[in-house]
Write a structure and sequence with these properties.
CATH topology of one domain: Immunoglobulin-like
Strand order of the largest sheet: 2-9-8-4-5
Strand content: 25-35%
Order of helices and strands: HEEEEEEEEEEEEEEEEEHEHH
GO molecular function: cell-cell adhesion mediator activity
Keywords: Immunoglobulin domain, Membrane, Signal, Transmembrane, Transmembrane helix
Protein name: Putative neuroplastin
Low-confidence stretches: 1-6, 12-24
Mean pLDDT: 83
CATH class of one domain: Mainly Beta
CATH superfamily of one domain: Immunoglobulins
Number of strands: 18
Helix content: 25-40%
Largest sheet: 5 strands, mixed
């Protein structure tokens, strides 16, 4: 009875064992240049080269084909004239990769019925939109709105405000997604307080940064002035002008007083008398 059962299911057992051997053979035939083999991950930096390699270990002249999301790369319009395939080196290269170049890439050898898939991820970069990076000046009570623009594959944004790390909104600070659908990309404070004078850091992570350990960051310093700070400055300027004018008037009065005293001294009676006597003596001398 047992022999009959074994003979009945032996073909299935052979097929199962053959599939295991074949699977093992496929994994040995193709060696992709993963950055993280456990997740088949390959990451790249936007605007830099993306290089996928798929080495064939089995001897023979085999043709290696490449596809993205199930479609041959030669038929994808967005990749047209932007990539090259080096057959001798078993490489697929995009010289200047875009954010949209992320996706699922597959290298295949049809003759060997072998293929391996890459999970290609664009590393994240961030910047502030329409804001001077490094500092911004505001008045108490104004609305603060910061937009952290993130590029890359599925970025996850958190904020550090002073020493506090925020991944959700609070009563005072609102975090919202932007037009691209990136969560927490916008930070808003409806009415800033003097205590909001601090550094605001936007940090973005994704699968690539989990491997590199280098999340993308950008920081801006928000400076808050009191409501009446400008008024105080204006009053200070007025006070300086008043004091300066007063000093000028005092100096002018003293100068005029000095000139008057000198004029009175020059026109004194003794000077007139001496002048008259001198004229008389001159007349007598002329007569003589």
């Amino acid at each position: 009875m047992e022999c009959k059962l074994i003979s009945r299911y032996s073909p299935l057992l052979v097929l199962f064992l053959a599939s295991l051997v074949n699977a093992q053979t496929v994994s040995d035939i193709l060696h992709p240049n993963y950055d993280d083999p456990s997740s088949s991950l390959k990451y790249y930096d936007i605007a830099k080269a993306l290089t996928l390699g798929c080495n064939i270990t089995k001897e023979g002249d085999y043709e290696l084909s490449w596809s993205k999301d199930g479609e041959n790369v030669s038929e994808i319009d967005s990749l047209r004239d932007r990539y090259k395939i080096i057959k001798e080196e078993r490489k697929f290269i995009i010289s200047r990769a875009l954010e949209s170049d992320a996706g699922s890439y597959t290298c295949s050898v049809r003759a060997l019925n072998a293929s391996r898939t890459f999970n290609v991820v664009a590393n994240v970069i961030v910047k502030f939109e329409s804001t001077e990076i490094g500092k911004t000046n505001m008045v108490e009570g104004e609305k603060l709105s910061l937009h952290c623009v993130a590029f890359g594959t599925n970025p996850k944004i958190t904020w550090t405000v002073g020493n506090a790390t925020l991944s959700t909104s609070t009563e005072h600070i609102v975090l919202e997604e932007d037009d691209k659908g990136v969560e927490n990309a916008r930070l808003t404070i409806e009415s800033v307080l003097l205590s909001d004078y601090t550094d605001y850091t936007c940090e973005a992570r994704n699968n690539a940064t989990d491997i590199t350990g280098k999340p993308a960051q950008v920081t801006i310093t928000v400076r808050i002035r009191g409501k009446y700070a400008a008024l105080y400055v204006f009053l200070g300027i007025i006070a300086e002008v008043v004091v300066l004018c007063a000093i000028i008037l005092i100096c002018e009065k003293r100068r005029n007083k000095t000139e008057i005293e000198e004029s009175d001294t020059d026109n004194s009676p003794d000077q007139h008398k001496n002048g008259h006597n001198g004229n008389s003596s001159e007349l007598r001398q002329r007569k003589n």
